[in-house]
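quick one
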Amino acid sequence: MIFERILRWLYPPKCVLCGKVLAEEETDFCSCCRIDAPVCPVDHRKKLPFLDSWLGVWYYEDSVRRSLLRYKFHGVQSYAKPYGQMLAMKLQQNHPDGFDLLTWVPISALRKFTRGYDQVELLASAVGAELEMEAIPLLTKVRHNRPQSGITGDAQRRANVLGAYRVTDPELLKDKKILLLDDIITTGATVSECARMLLTAGAKEVHCGAVAIARRKKRSR
Ligand SMILES: [Zn+2]
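structure w/ zinc ion:
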């Protein structure tokens, strides 16, 4: 107990989103962020190709965006657990019947090597711990494409990921209801391509969950 207090004094825990030092009664998120974070509503009418459903915890903007950048590019791997808890809670609320298998959108072996970790794999393990499911690598990335973040245009993003993923073991996913996780959904091209591969290999349904969803900009004509 005393040790914990000293540790807290030396390394005060900070809010996962805004980075503010937390009050003693707060865990992971400060009370402001718990209220004001841009929660992404679940709109069942919005469709993404090949996905039976999809949802995200927050919109990808402001403190959420900065938090995910720290997680993805600055080694703050400890965010996987609080992200995973929030995502798992939302998935349980929207899918009370659960899923047969849990997997994630993998990064390439080269990117995992240079980054030192696969941030989506860590997220999948954290969600799996909450849902009492093992995260299974059903997909592998076979082509090291350009990062989607540097490409504008829906068609270009679809083309960039086409054929980039392979199913590891088709036998595993026959007639299964699959939960596919990613960290950020921007246009949905990546998760749609992964879902297409899983369905082609025999999966029954693919549902997607992400930490954050980018708001679609209005098309200028
Ligand atoms: Zn905060």
